Amino acid sequence: MQKFLLRAPSWVIALLFGALFALMSVVVGVIDDASWRFVAIMAVVGGVIMGPLLALVTRNQRREQLRALEEVPEQEWKLVRRAAWKGPVPSDPGIRAAALELATRFYGRAYRFRKPFYIVFGLNLVVQIVSLATGGSRWAIVTMICFAIVIVLQWYNLRRLKRRIELLR
Questions:
Q1: Which pLDDT score is estimated for 152?
Q2: pLDDT beneath 50: ranges in the chain
Q3: Angle at the Cα of 81 (from 100 to 73), degrees rounded to 5?
Q4: Rounded CA gap, 148 and 153, in Å?
Q5: Which of 99, 161, 154, 101 is nearest to 125 (CA)?
Q6: What is the pLDDT of residue 159?
Q7: Which of 7, 33, 140, 167 could form a disulfide with 132 if both were Cys (CB 3.0 to 4.6 A apart)?
């Protein structure tokens, strides 16, 4: 599946992201006991907007991964991806070099966008805290926790990838 997603055209990725976003919107709407008409409109509008937007955002990431993996046979892509994130350092120099390239690309992208990422997610976290403090819905708690977890994971992954790059060198 990962190979398919890396090579898929942007319109396919947009459809997948849009459908996933629409499905999540329906689930949240049903749990929140919203009207079906409102849920359907929000799911369609959200899917139409978020699908292409997320496909556009991830296009360069997919291209970078393909460039890092092009020197390695497809059968070993899974090994390279795993080695870029965790596990023992591969003894095969080709897999090790590709894993280093992939980890370096992941780290470079995450490092370049760290400030905007922390600003956007931090502001969203503050908005959710204010919403909760002013009597907002119970969803404010869920989204507040999600934003906090994503911020911590981003902080942790930057440090972990830096250590992994040093290990793969």
A1: 94
A2: none
A3: 90
A4: 9
A5: 154
A6: 93
A7: 140
Q: How many CB atoms are closer than 10 A to CB 169?
A: 10
Task: Please name the residue ranges forming H helices in the chain.
Answer: 2-7, 10-31, 36-69, 77-85, 93-112, 114-133, 139-168
Residue 96 vs residues 87, 88, 162, 168: alpha-carbon distances, Å: 12, 10, 15, 7
CB atoms within 10 A of CB 80: 26
Angle between helices 114-133 and 139-168 (to 10 degrees): 160
Read off the pLDDT of residues 97-123 as tens digits, 9 standing for 90 and up.
888 988 898 898 889 889 999 999 999
Polymer length in residues for the chain: 169
CA–CA gap between residue 29 and residue 51 (Å, rounded): 19
To the nearest 10 degrees (0 to 180), the angle between helices 77-85 and 93-112 is: 50
CA atoms within 13 A on the CB side of 108: 10
The tokens of 91 are what?
Answer: 């003894």
Dihedral sign computed on CA atoms, order 126, 130, 132, 137: negative
Single-letter residue type at 154: Q
The encoded tokens of residue 65 equal 């991964």
Token pair of 168 as six digits: 């793969």
Kindly report the CA angle at 66 between 61 and 72, in degrees rounded to 5? 145
